[in-house]
């Protein structure tokens, strides 16, 4: 029987912690549900003590997501551990994940604690966490730059105090694969525990070595790997879990391990995170990038036609890349539409189904073939609307071209009043549209991010726009999908403004902070 490798997903904590990746509770919940469908073993739902929003989001995931272990991060303080334990209370399988740094530089410069104090704190706080009756994971932040014998001492103390999982973060992505291998072999040999423990790796990608380091850790005997989908995370990010899952799956001849991952859910999970964060992966990203399965050169295409395996080590279907086949057409009915959405894992209420179906019919008039990705984009767009949105877009026109100042006219209904028409010019057609909307509703949205992506290939492809808009320290994400990119752009902007106005799906920025600084959270004791 081959060994099982456990996947610990921290997209919602380490991933979300990266500047500009903040998500609402609702978005985190959607991602957690998809992670459960993907088959990850552990979901790190957040850092409960960091804000009431994070607490509520951990609590909702603990209450409603079944299957994976649900964990929350806590520094080695009673306050953090109490917050994590309380948020995790409803979970069927809770785990408290507690952390303190162990490298000389972190202890001296950041924590301003002596090594003996760190050891004492670990002993007391791991025991405090274990006394809740929940499983405890202990992480030694900056472990890979820590003195090995001190690290061994800290881990031995943590295990004696009740930690079942010992995690070795390469916090600054500094280690090489050979060092990683040796470090784990050393720890496995020297750490003493009164009970069986799981060794875990947690690699950041500052030198582009996170995947190689994770595989080296697995070869050294680690059975839990921590990472994120699309590799999102602080600075250069965390290891991309889809890469580990596919490396293990594709190279079973080298890595003889089992996982609980349903690899056919990888692409959809990646897309969901791109949609929610508004950050697209680069086209050449391994496993989930748009070009990962594209064969452009004549020699490669010739080989592929003769035998796929000449140039393809993974089949697109293995990671759930939808086949380029007609899914639904102009004449498909509501039942087939609903059925297809259910197959894709979407449960829409009646009002959402009505709106999405109307959009589907409209799209079917403009686009010959409708794929699963198109349906996902429409649903992503429609689901963000509330029962009553304060702004309704009635129409828009844009005038743009070379040597012309782009101008736009929009007609909107705001708060149920009579329709109002306004025009504005801007740096480009999108800017003109957004300024015209602002003018029509006497509001000023500050556009933080604008991202556009083609959902499928082809000239009639649906364009999907994701924007992040800020107003008075509050940030909302809006999505819009249409075969007309200007329509997608204005839909996304209006969706974000509707959220800002109703407070639905809004993330708060503390006073006087910009989007980068407000996400920085210290791990000091
Ligand atoms: O990178 C890191 O050190 C972490 C810990 C909090 C586990 O994310
Ligand atoms: Zn990390």
Characterization of the model:
The protein is of the alpha/beta class and 525 residues long. The protein contains 17 helices and 17 strands. The strands form 4 sheets. An 8-stranded parallel β-barrel has the order 2-3-4-5-6-7-8-9, surrounded by 8 helices. A 4-stranded antiparallel beta sheet has the order 14-15-16-17. Helix 2 runs parallel beside helix 3 and helix 14 crosses helix 15. The chain is globular. It binds 3-methyl-2-oxobutanoic acid and zinc ion. 3-methyl-2-oxobutanoic acid (KIV) binds next to strand 6.
What's the arrangement of secondary structure elements?
Elements: E1 3-4, E2 6-9, H1 11-17, H2 25-38, E3 42-46, H3 52-64, E4 69-75, H4 78-88, E5 94-101, H5 104-111, H6 115-130, E6 135-141, H7 148-160, E7 165-170, H8 177-190, E8 198-203, H9 210-220, E9 224-227, H10 241-250, E10 257-258, H11 266-277, H12 298-306, H13 334-343, H14 350-366, H15 372-382, E11 391-399, E12 407-414, E13 420-425, H16 429-441, E14 446-454, E15 463-471, E16 474-482, H17 485-502, E17 506-508
Parallel strand pairs: 1-10, 2-3, 2-9, 3-4, 4-5, 5-6, 6-7, 7-8, 8-9
Antiparallel strand pairs: 11-12, 12-13, 14-15, 15-16, 16-17
Helix pairs in contact: 2-3, 2-11, 3-4, 6-7, 8-9, 14-15, 16-17
The site of 3-methyl-2-oxobutanoic acid has 9 residues, from strand 6.
Largest sheet: 8 strands, parallel, barrel
Structural class comes to alpha/beta
Percent range of helical residues: 25-40%
Bound chemical compounds: 3-methyl-2-oxobutanoic acid, zinc ion
- Would you count the extended β strands for me? 17
- Any idea of the CATH class of the largest domain? Alpha Beta
What's the gyration radius in Å?
25 Å
With helices defined by DSSP (H or I, 4 residues minimum), what is the helix count?
17
Overall morphology: globular
How many domains? The number is: 3
Could you name the CATH topology of the largest domain?
Answer: TIM Barrel
Are there runs of 5+ residues with pLDDT below 50, and where?
A: 511-525
* Overall average residue pLDDT: 90
CATH architecture of the largest domain: Alpha-Beta Barrel
| Strand order across the largest sheet | 2-3-4-5-6-7-8-9
State the fourth-level CATH superfamily of the largest domain: Aldolase class I
Q: What separation lies between the terminal Cα atoms?
A: 43 Å
Estimated share of beta-strand residues:
15-25%
